[in-house]
Amino acid sequence: MLTFIGLGLWDERSVTVEGREALRAADRVFAEFYTSRLAGTTVADLESHHGVAIEVRDRDGVERDPEAILDAAAEEDVAFLTAGDTMISTTHADLRVRAAERGIETRVIHGVTAQSAASSLTGLQNYRFGKAVTLPFEYAHGAEGTPQSVIDGIEANRERGLHTLVYLDIKVAGSSPAGPAEGEPDEYMTADHAAEALARDWDSEAVGVAVARAGSPTPVVAADTLAALSEREFGDPLHMLVIPGDLHHLEAEALAELAGCPRDAFPATE
């Protein structure tokens, strides 16, 4: 059995009760934290809190060479952990398919994901979000400026009146040749960095909504023009950025009251 468990957004307590029970009952536990991580805890704290030993795999050890995981799951109950929801903002469908091809039973235990948190914290209605995009560090995509695909994605959503969730790049040390080397600090793109890039390469007067530390006891939500957000600091990771489309009047009120958005910066409301 191979059970995919989403750990939620913040720390060792963010996992659901069902996920916690499956994690603690597993014979062997694997995890990856190169696509995202729990910013409010460490692997050691996860192990201590749940009474398990966790084998952390790098990208190659999950995507190119998952045999250790699959071999274990063929014989034992194995848990595979990720931050957020294991099959939404982070997808490991390939690993699940490989398990199925070997006749290994699988199941998915969902966790809170950044996508649902972005809607909940900002007051922007979930069904009014379009396709999400990811903004990479410039050095990671090998060109100057913001990738045109990111701008195209935002504009395509806005043409339909839809909001865009912009995931911000994470580079875990040793996980990629383009990122920091093993032993160096991990790198996390901040919302002000993302706002600066989009203000420079797209539209400085467009409204953005910065979301920092979703799932923590003290998340930050701030809305303003991209130019204004680029001048602010939002503290420790993880961060996201939302670019609103057309706003329902209740969404506009939410951005004003919950995120401090200046009313003269709003796009059109319904």
Features:
270 residues, alpha/beta, Cobalt-precorrin-4 Transmethylase, domain 1, Methyltransferase, Cobalt-precorrin-4 Transmethylase, Domain 2, 5-stranded parallel sheet, 5-stranded mixed sheet, 12 strands
Description:
The protein has 2 domains: 2-109, Cobalt-precorrin-4 Transmethylase, domain 1; 114-265, Tetrapyrrole methylase, C-terminal domain (Methyltransferase, Cobalt-precorrin-4 Transmethylase, Domain 2, 2-Layer Sandwich). The mean pLDDT is 92. The chain contains 11 helices and 12 strands. Strands 3-2-4-1-5 form a 5-stranded parallel sheet, with helices on both faces. A 5-stranded mixed sheet has the order 6-7-12-10-11, with helices on both faces. The chain is of the alpha/beta class. Strand 10 and strand 11 form a beta hairpin. The chain has helices at residues 17-25, 43-50, 59-64, 67-75, 93-101, 114-122, 138-141, 148-159, 191-203, 226-229, 249-259; strands at residues 2-6, 28-31, 54-56, 78-82, 106-109, 133-135, 164-168, 170-171, 187-188, 207-212, 220-225, 239-243.
Radius of gyration: 19 Å
Identify the overall geometry.
globular
Percent helix, as a range, is: 25-40%
CATH topology of the largest domain: Methyltransferase, Cobalt-precorrin-4 Transmethylase, Domain 2
- Count of folded domains: 2
CATH class of the largest domain: Alpha Beta
The ordered H/E elements are EHEHEHHEHEHEHHEEEHEEHEH
Identify the CATH homologous superfamily of the largest domain: Tetrapyrrole methylase, C-terminal domain
Span of the ends, CA to CA: 49 Å
| Beta strand % | 15-25%
- The tally of strands reads 12
